[in-house]
Design brief:
The structure is a homodimer of 228-residue chains. Chain A contains eight helices and no strands. The first copy, chain A, is mainly alpha-helical. Among the domains of chain A are: 54 residues, Homeodomain-like (Arc Repressor Mutant, subunit A), CATH 1.10.10.60; 101 residues, Tetracycline Repressor, domain 2, CATH 1.10.357. The radius of gyration of chain A is 22 Å and the shape is flat. Chains A and B meet through helix 5, helix 6, helix 7 and helix 8 of A and helix 5, helix 6, helix 7 and helix 8 of B. Chain A binds a DNA duplex (30 and 30 nucleotides) through loops.
DNA sequence: TGTAAACCGCAAACGCCGTTCGCGATTTGT
DNA sequence: ACAAATCGCGAACGGCGTTTGCGGTTTACA
């Protein structure tokens, strides 16, 4: 009736569970190697391709063997997320004002979502926060130190910034995949009127930055905008 | 070698596929009844409980029978989404200015996400837009008619508003489910410093509305905020 | 040093999933 | 009347995450 470190009734989160015990033979793989294989799979073939069997096959073993290193697929996704967040390092030293630094961090997040689109499907799960994510939070709090407002507001703002960046990232990857196939557009007069309109040039430019700036100032400093 | 209306190589989207042919016996169920059962299941037990077998069982039939009415589970999710979006009706007549009307719509969306939390896991899939969603878009475009800006900007703004509302909805349903279990907080000095701070009162209030207002004006009317 | 406990990789199996298929029965168009 | 189309149904297929039991390997401790 032995209880391996990984299986069993999931007593502790993955972050504090030791990777291996001290008794048995040396493991053929490592937790990080598994995570790297899973991330490569997700990057190239999408998150749906990250099945325990596929990840195990990429490492030349069987699905069941992975459970020597992690206790569930959710654990694997948590580890993938935290490792990807680690790619946001190194964090910029605070030089200018906090707003510019936060916007810079937002653009880094956007790039990260571009490099690992599967993050969009993974970050919204309720799960334990890993050390790299904590380091990122810690860094944001440090940057926001000069801002005079309750801590809760800072946390909410950081989360909201990440969320808004994820929305922009999704828009870029979806790239107008709207499909009006199969519906009779005649029932939506304002839509067809808008579409028949000559549609001026795309207002792109620094839309993300402008949005982030407006969001950060709006959430952290009372209300600087009141266009009524 | 007959080809049923629902099965086969998925020639046309669900919205234009006729619910039944004219030949055979009367169907025991209906597309809408299936969708209602699925929505009830999702509302009470979560989206994961919406399996073809479970939905069929709720209707007193077998999983395979559902494929007489829809061609895939994705179709079912699309139908569920569109039916839920239909609950946003009736749409308010434009009375005041467009900004207030849009903010009102945003609050309605927030309420919808609260009533059907599974929408949060479903709206981000690339899929065909249903008639109710189109009607909602049509209404938004109508409200934004007095705004002088390219159509593309209006569409992006509507999508971004929906996205931001979904972020707030997620925050409300998650309700601070952060779990720092299993990590050594000592490595994150700014975090512990922020937490040890007496943390003023929650700045809640009309955070959603303020954010939406700032977002809408920022995206549609150049840049009214420039807190540099 | 001997031995028992702990750990390894592996393959088979379990229960669930979405989906397909073939069947007999039923209704409709011509 | 008869063929074509559709119905409900149950069995089956392949894939999934996960568990389990096994023989072999390594370590801790008496």
């Amino acid at each position: 009736m032995s209880e391996t470190a990984a299986s069993g009734p999931d007593r502790q989160p993955i972050w504090s569970r030791p990777e291996r015990g001290s008794r048995g033979p040396a493991p053929a793989h490592s937790r990080d190697a598994i995570v790297v294989a899973a991330i490569n799979l997700a990057d190239t073939e999408g998150l749906a391709a990250v099945s325990m069997r596929a990840v195990a096959a990429a490492l030349g073993t069987g699905a069941g063997s992975l459970y020597r290193y992690l206790s569930s697929r959710d654990d694997l996704l948590d580890l993938m997320t935290d490792r990807a967040v680690g790619e946001l390092r190194p964090y910029p030293q605070v030089e200018g004002d906090w707003l510019e630094t936060m916007v810079l961090l937002g653009r880094r997040q956007l790039a990260l979502f571009g490099a690992h689109p599967w993050l969009l499907d993974v970050i919204h799960r309720p799960s334990g926060i890993g050390p790299q994510s904590l380091a990122w939070f810690d860094n944001c709090i440090r940057i926001l130190e000069p801002v005079r407002c309750p801590v809760a507001a800072k946390f909410e703002t950081i989360a909201m910034m990440t969320g808004v960046v994820s929305l922009f990232a999704r828009r870029e990857s979806a790239a107008g995949a709207f499909s009006f196939a199969g519906v009779d557009l005649a029932a939506y007069p304002h839509l067809v009127a808008a579409f028949s309109q000559p549609s001026g040039p795309a207002p792109r430019a620094d839309l993300v930055e402008r949005t982030l700036r407006s969001l950060l100032t709006g959430l952290l400093l009372g209300e600087p905008t009141d266009a009524g």
